[in-house]
Amino acid sequence: MKGNVVSFLPSKGYGFIKGDDGLDYYFKQSAVTNLAEVKAVVAGDRVSFDEHATAKGYAARSITIEQIHTYVIPSVFLESKGDSIKGWEVLELGGYMAQAYYKSPDDAKRAMINCAKNAGANAVLNVNYEKSSESTGNYTYSTFYYSGQLAIVGRKSHEGKRTKDQICQLKATADNLFQKQIANNKTERKCKNIIIAIAIGVPFIMLMISRNFMWLLASGAILYVMHYFSGGYGSWLKPIKNFQPKQETHEQRSENESLWNGM
């Protein structure tokens, strides 16, 4: 007989299987013959078993869990202040932090998420939020900072269409985006230096020609406007120093799947 695990309590070691014949079968974890290979029983597992009728109902014995090699991924972007997300397995952890700095907390959070998405992530972990005050002249305002570590999360499922290797392309995508970021920063610095040279050079030349000190005021105004509007706002990737990808242990996988089962 074949069926699907519909519920399982890790703390009790038992659960129920919905057989393809429409009947519910009680089972004990000890009846799973390949538990050493799959490490954990999870709701949704496809199983084959021997059916038995008992005085209390139907029971499943000699259970074999069909190993799943495909994954589903979340339909929405996920975020967590910790290093995991309940019900999801961290398939790949990125070596970058997505960071954003804006005058609005909503803009900062949105920019961080968009930065992570562009880098190929579907989640951010270890999210950090900071608020600070800055001033320009007599004007004081708040600024907001968000950061989160890039990650790809998924969950094993018979309904999945892709394997883990097909899903986990985070490193290549993030590395490519970071290199583009470096190139863009160099271009922006060059443009900024040119504008500064013009803002200083042209008024100085006009001052020498006309002896009109208003050109100095014009130069100062241009530089002030450049400083005001280039206040470092935006989003970017920051490499994590000494980052080493971690392999999920069997114990961590079992714990994560148990959390999902308990949802």
Outline the structure in words.
With 263 residues, this protein is an alpha+beta fold. The C terminus is likely disordered. Helices cover 35% and strands 35% of the residues. The protein is rod-shaped and about 105 Å long. The chain has two domains: 64 residues, OB fold (Dihydrolipoamide Acetyltransferase, E2P) (Beta Barrel); 139 residues, Hypothetical protein apc22750. Chain B (Translation Initiation Factor IF3). A hairpin with a 2-residue loop joins strand 9 and strand 10. The longest helix is centred in the C-terminal third of the chain and has 41 residues. The strands form two sheets. Strands 6, 7, 8, 9, 10 and 11 form a six-stranded mixed sheet that branches. It has a five-stranded antiparallel sheet with strand order 3-2-1-4-5, with no helix packed on it.
The CATH class assignment of the largest domain is Alpha Beta
Principal-axes geometry comes out as: rod-shaped
CATH superfamily of the largest domain: Hypothetical protein apc22750. Chain B
- The computed structural class is alpha+beta
How much helicity do the residues have? 25-40%
How big is the Rg? Answer: 29 Å
Order of helices and strands: EEEHEEEEEHEEHHHEH
Quote the CATH topology of the largest domain. Answer: Translation Initiation Factor IF3
Strand content: 35-45%
Low-confidence stretches: 248-263
CATH architecture of the largest domain: 2-Layer Sandwich
Short description:
The chain is an alpha+beta fold. The protein has six helices and eleven strands.
